[in-house]
């Protein structure tokens, strides 16, 4: 075979030389004829594909479980203690109002990047005075984003975290931005993403990030996978990126893909240090977004940050060279966000008792996942309450309730 291959190469040497002048550099070597797209055959898993295997436990109550974690970050050298749940930096979720509620439970909020410097200043001196230490200021990577970031941090220096957020964390420009932000803010805790593979997780940590956001396409209002065909099953992404990050004493956030408290538990069980939530926190009183009444029901608008809704709102529309990679939905009004957060934290505590983890940091060490073909019994429609009742926004109640007195 080798002799025939070599003879064929010699016979066609002149032809190949001439073709190489016309063809792309990729085609200059005859070996390029054998280069094909690569397929990874190892099965990758999502949250829906597994369940926890219960283990013997000495815990007698969920009250014995501590959900607080303490991290000393590799690059900023800062130490943080709290409950590692983060509200996503989306218009309708990463709001000052949500941050105030989550701060009371020692949870974080990645505040969206569209608040002005004046709004940040007013909030930090007013109702957000106690909550500001539990937020991250979000930014893109453009020059105007860096200018605004500097202005916000100058006005509110007590903000402890920066969330540098782009849809595609694989660009050289993003890596260079992280290096620049680290150089300019050596003492700030930096979140950076999004990526889904170990090698890029390592690259961003070595470039100065403390916490890597993991997830491409799993979000409830994200259509990246549909529009581009790009993505990675979230549980496998979390497990692989956590392994890479922890080897460098870095941390990761599982960002997207959670549909219920059980998915949050699985993210922690898979090695995530933090879990970021968007859709699970949408539709609450503290969320921004238009409230819509249809019949006797109320809804709040929720949209992805790459949706046409978001781009029309912030940049005047979808640019000619791109497509929308998000959708806009109506979420049933869900009342105060604190009740939902309490329910999520209760689910995580319960998961810890099932596997014998007295501390949240022990959960991944005590996790064994089992592959499943079905998780839930769907014989009856789901209800989150024993006696469900329709929620009505306080503003609507004030308009519709009859005045008291004669």
What does this molecule look like?
The radius of gyration is 25 Å and the shape is globular. The chain has 13 helices and 15 strands. The chain is 33% helix and 17% strand. The longest helix has 19 residues, at 337-355. It is an alpha/beta fold. The protein starts with a helix and ends in a 6-residue tail after the last helix. The chain has helices at 2-11, 13-22, 96-104, 117-125, 143-155, 172-184, 198-206, 224-228, 234-247, 261-269, 308-315, 337-355, 394-400; strands at residues 50-52, 69-72, 79-82, 85-87, 108-111, 135-139, 161-165, 189-195, 211-214, 251-255, 274-277, 291-294, 297-303, 328-332, 369-371. An 8-stranded parallel β-barrel has the order 4-5-6-7-8-9-10-11, surrounded by 6 helices. Strands 12-13-14 form a 3-stranded antiparallel beta sheet. A two-stranded antiparallel sheet has the order 1-15.
Give a short summary of the structure:
The protein is α/β, with parallel strands linked by helices and 406 residues long. Helices cover 33% and strands 17% of the residues.
Task: Name some characteristics of this structure.
406 residues
What share of residues are in beta strands?
15-25%
Secondary structure: helix percent: 25-40%
Largest sheet composition: 8 strands, parallel, barrel
Number of helices: 13
Going across the major beta sheet, what is the strand order?
A: 4-5-6-7-8-9-10-11
**Low-confidence parts lasting 5 or more residues at pLDDT below 50?**
1-6, 16-23, 399-406
Structure classification = alpha/beta
Question: How do the helices and strands follow one another from N- to C-terminus?
Answer: HHEEEEHEHEHEHEHEHHEHEEEHEHEH
